[in-house]
Amino acid sequence: MEAERFLDEVLIRVKSFLESSQTESKIRDSQTYSSLARTSDLKLPMEGRGLEAVLDDIESVLRYSVRTTAPGFMNPLWGGLSTASIAGELVTAATNTAMYTYEIAPIATLIESTLLKRMGELADFGNSQGTLTTGGSNGNLLGMLCARQAKAPLSSHSGFDGAKMVAFVSEESHYSFSIASNVIGIGHSNLIKVRCNEDGQMRPESLEEEIDRALREGQIPFAVLATSGTTVRGSFDPLREIAAIAHKYELWMHVDAAWGGSCLFSSRYRSLMDGIELADSFCWDAHKMMGVPLICSAFIVKDAEMLRTVCSNGNTAHYLYLETGENVDLGQYSLQCGRRNDALKLWLAWREIGDAGWASMVERFMELADYLEERVKENEYLQMVSKRMWTNVCFRYVGNSPDGDINRINAELRQRIIQDGRFMVSRSTIDDQIILRSVIANRNVTEESLDSFLDCVISLGKDIERGLPQK
Ligand SMILES: Cc1ncc(COP(=O)(O)O)c(C=O)c1O
Fold first, then answer.
1. Which atom of ligand 1 is nearest to the CA of 231?
2. How many angstroms does the Cα of residue 49 sit away from the middle of ligand 1?
3. CB of residue 137 inside a 6 A radius of ligand 1
């Protein structure tokens, strides 16, 4: 089979997968790991099987893949896809290049720079710099690394003793900050968890108390790490108040806006990140709410030199970075060497719908989350568990059961939802209560799909209460 016809055939299968994801009732095959491993032929052959056989393999992969664009997919903080972005992914693969130098990625370099500049402008960051990373986790790592560099300018060259260096983060922040604490050399125990209020937002007065306590105990504070859009509740920390404290103590302020950053597009919801312009750096995942295929994530920093220093290679990459007279090679602002062109898919999606399209997307998602919240509130079998700020809707089934049983029922309910296969939401815990977290980040969700979802939750919840087995 020649390559051209093969690619046409691949596209036919991919299109059919995407189309059927909107109509198939099951979004996930419920086979267990061991049964799927037993029934799949995944062996790497001694002799090649040819492109025809690759088409069969693609069909099998599609058959056993979760349909993450289906309206019932509300599990992680992403789902659904921008069509222009899928094209971007394809073109990125076909034009296969690495983002380190302008020479090897000319138009891609200009595109990535355009995006980073615009994302910085949306946060009123002025003349900022940045890089696309492998995700919010690495954006948070870069934020902490820049903060370390700001406090200990020799650390990138001569190393440092991180035993006394402490950073502050909300107790509801993402776990990537713990990983980053290890990587930058301060260790998990030097990441101080600041108490949140009942809505899951960092309490500024607790932050200040923790900083004062650390100083009294001879520790060296160096970073305040706020979150705009927490993973479970979708809470936004009060950035303006946090920035005032960070500035008072001369600490670097990084904001994890991996999930909530898209609010910056909407005049109605931008205030959730009021004060972002006072931070030193932030990260923002386009692969979450914006429907750009994983991976696409930005890290933006006001002080370009700080980012350049933490990514410095000590002039050892003489074979890559030549003196062209123009300081345009993005590799000098990245921890990676080879790096995909993740910019193209975001740029194409942005060109398609513009700022106004992103604003409408955010507002539509909030409208759907409002709708789901209202349906939950008016239903006697269900209960909202946390105040809603973003599109995370955290609730639980309460039915007619005594308090003591509700956690067990919701744990089983989540399992039965997954087994049922029509919907996917995640399970989490808020104040010792097991909850279902459904997230609106998928452009194929509708009011009707949300109604069906709640019907499914209630029907399965009643079965559990009655002691009926999974159907
Ligand atoms: C608030 C928050 N920050 C950071 C991350 C990590 O992002 P990524 O998965 O892109 O590394 C997540 C992931 O869900 C998140 O919820």
1. 16
2. 39
3. yes
Tell me whether residue 308 is exposed, middle or buried, using C-beta atoms within 10 angstroms of its C-beta: 0 to 12, 13 to 18, 19 or more. middle
CA-CA distances (angstroms) from residue 100 to 108, 132, 454? 10, 12, 48
- Helix or strand (DSSP H, E) at 170: strand 165-170
Cβ distance 249 to 221 under 8 Å?
Answer: yes
The two beta strands, 392-397 and 191-194, are unpaired
C-alpha 257 to ligand 1 mean position (Å) = 9
Amino acid at 249: Y
Among protein residues, the one whose CA lies closest to atom 16 of ligand 1: 231
Q: What pLDDT digit, counting tens, does each position of 127-149 carry?
A: 999 999 999 999 999 999 999 99
DSSP secondary structure letters along 111-160: HHHHHHHHHHHHTT--S-EEEEES-HHHHHHHHHHHHHHHH-TTHHHH--
Amino acid at 370: D
Is the pLDDT at 325 greater than 70? The verdict is no
Whole-prediction pTM value? 0.97
